[in-house]
Amino acid sequence: MSSVSPRDPRRPGDRAAAGRLVLATRGSPLALAQANQVRALLLAREPALDIVVESLRTTGDTFLDRPLSEIGGKGLFTKELDEALLAKRADIAVHSMKDLPTHLPPGLALVVMLEREDPRDVWIGHAGASLADLPAGALVGTASLRRGAQILAARPDLRTGIFRGNVQTRLKKLAAGEAAATLLALAGLHRLGLKIGDGELAGARVMPMAEMLPAPGQGAIGIVCREDDDAMRELLSPLGHAATMATVTAERAALEALDGSCRTPIAAFAETDGNVLSLQVAIFSPDGRKSFRTARSGVTRDAQAMGMDAGGELRRQAGPNFFAELAR
Known about the structure:
Layout: H1 12-17, E1 20-26, H2 29-45, E2 50-56, H3 59-62, H4 68-71, H5 79-86, E3 92-96, E4 108-113, E5 121-125, E6 139-141, H6 145-154, E7 159-161, H7 167-175, E8 181-185, H8 186-191, E9 205-206, E10 221-226, H9 230-236, H10 242-257, E11 266-273, E12 276-284, E13 291-299, H11 303-318, H12 320-327
Parallel strand pairs: 1-2, 1-3, 6-7, 6-8
Antiparallel strand pairs: 3-10, 4-10, 5-8, 5-9, 11-12, 12-13
């Protein structure tokens, strides 16, 4: 794909004014689908723009045989995109919000979030097997500690194991019998045009929130640019969805207060009803045997404070030993 040379003397705002914009993304089919969604939204408003989608292979996409916690955490999905922005090889970067660290590198800013897709998880059993159907000792493939902990809380007689890769890769592994079941985000399936009940998803089931609370930010797409790029901020502003920004801000604030990492199974979900925001947050031990939950309700403008307060409460509930054990 085309890209802007690092030696391009024009500033990013000048490129946008000239009709040229470079959008950086991961190279997976889902990431490209999300990037092209942003591209289409921008072109609908500014048809004269020349938007180049630049796909980058990230460190997180390279090492698929180990948990993220062993290779540096979810920031490995954003590192190369951050570098492209800071080096002015790209103007914006499109991210799944659940993959975006709570703190961005200096010089970058999260500007807008698109309207959120359905944040729930989907259970996909080999040959249509349900969670209740699985025999004791069966393997549920997932790289997510959050999903694994909640599955083990419901069925402590099961096993969980690493199951990384893009959506298509995981479905192929499941079809080959490498695991008895796996879980995927419903939002990602929707964005790839995959429907529950069709083909490989014939026996899939959307999991209720009461059974599987999602990851903070799941289902939301965020757009990052350089902090001082006022022209890009102005261009992106109309794409923002206020309710999504409020709910995901609350969830990410809880994650920040909990000092969340890939070693910590954390789940959170917020929703709005007018100007009222409701938040649920939960933390788990990886084996699912221990869990702590809390909830908050308040006005949307207090989203950040609500999330920080909820996360702080869970830290107090769990106590220092809980987090010390997870850090080992």
